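Database export, one record per block. Field names are fixed; values are copied verbatim from the stored entry.
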Amino acid sequence: MSPPRFVRVAALCLGSVICVFMPHSARAAFGATPSGGGFIVNNGANLVFTVNSSGDMPSCKYKGTELNDQSKASCIASGLGASSVTCTTNGGNVLIIKCVSTAISSSALTHYYIVQSGVDDIFMADYVTSEPSVGELRYIFRGQFNVLPNGPADSNNNGNTGAIESTDVFGHSNGQTTSKYYGSERAKDLTVKGATGSGVGVFTAFGNRESSMGGPFVRDIENQGDGSGSDQEIYNYMNSGHHLGLQIGGQTENFRVNVLYGPYAFCFTTGGTPSVPSMSFIANLGLTGYVQSSGRGQVVLNGLSGMNTAYTYYMGFNNSTAQYWTTLSSSGSGSCQGMKPGTYTMTVYKNELAVYTNSASVTAGGATTFHTQTITGDPSTVSTIWRIGDWDGTPLEFLNGGNIMNMHPSDVRNSKWGPVTFSVGSSASSFPSCLFRGDNSPTTINFSLTSTQAASAHNFKIGITDNYNNARPSVSINGHALSVPGIPTQPGDRSLTTGTYRGNNDMFTWSIPSSDFVTGQNSIVITAASGSSDSSAWLSASFSYDCVELDN
């Protein structure tokens, strides 16, 4: 029986190339064979995978070894459902599998699988016209754990002794904890990540984040050994409800629609970590929503005044259709390129703290230039009597702050949380990164004032980076209770127990009259106020500190 016409054409177009670069016997023919409403795809090198009639991938073989869990297909979202699955070729050396479904959203979602002849990568992209009904957009490669056992340790739930929080944070007999949420990187740091086995590796190349939401510092699930011993899950989360959907500074974002997510890729190797593959060829494939480089512009910043040399600064942009960011030089100069036309909120960050905002308009083929700008929003410039930590939008300098992203607060690798009594002048590393009403409340700060200082009113400030359960600081000084602030605008999902401190940075300020101070030793007590009840010691009203200070 002769092969299907599409496969025969692809093989004829590529035959001379195959013969020149590799003996025909060493590699199979490049092409796609129709099968059950989908296709079996051979990349002409080491990959053979199946896309079924639902647009899912139930089989993926590398050098003949089945990588995919045979009980669950790899898929976008939680599966597209019934789809229109078509295959076209571009120039004879690229296959484009296009899957269109209306089963998971109110209008069509399009998912692309793209393969280059002889390249062991599966490139993907998604055009979304409405939010999927599951409330998130992800591609999950469901690998077999016994084939790909070597994933990130923080998210390997195998061997656990049971869930310690919800159904997704697990304890182990050695007192350590794991979760699919742990070990993830900030969006701006994403490159490649995956899992390996004997002679094989599967990695996500996270690709373009312009259509995602949350800005440069959010984190989301990247890997999971699911605890059953069967799955090694490798993700690309583009949007989710996992404490995302926010921008630093209090501006929330909606799910971006009528845009292309990606491109991104899943890369297959003999075990080595690959470089990020070039995806420039995808520009010529006619993907719905793809914006060519000629239709994009850039913003140039010539410099910043008022920088703190101890920190790295970033420049970010966002509007309803896109987000971008770039790292600035030590003088504050930099350019953000490849931006879609439109008007953006421009934000400069000192580490993760917004210290400058503006508006920037981008035109196709143009460059919008800002001359040296002066930072006006850095609270660290205020003169203080004392300051604990610094204003940088993170709790990382505080006790256990560096562990929030990698483990549950109950993990034995954490130092005892407290309650803490902190004497001003001590190392910030002994000040708690988080206050949990159910475990380490209160935080007590002892400090001394001169008679001159005690005779004046002063502003007292607490900065937080996130909260849970409507928490906000409740403060008393020398037994005098200060007013309780209103509920801050923060995402409502779990956070501090699921690997992130990233919410909306908030500052609370109290003007303390001189009558509340005394000459000599003073004491401030901080607890968490909330009108909501707690469900456990850790899922209690809580917040993460950014900085605490008493101003001159």
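Remark 1: Residues 5-21 form the longest helix (17 residues).
Remark 2: Helices lie at 5-21, 451-454.
End of record.
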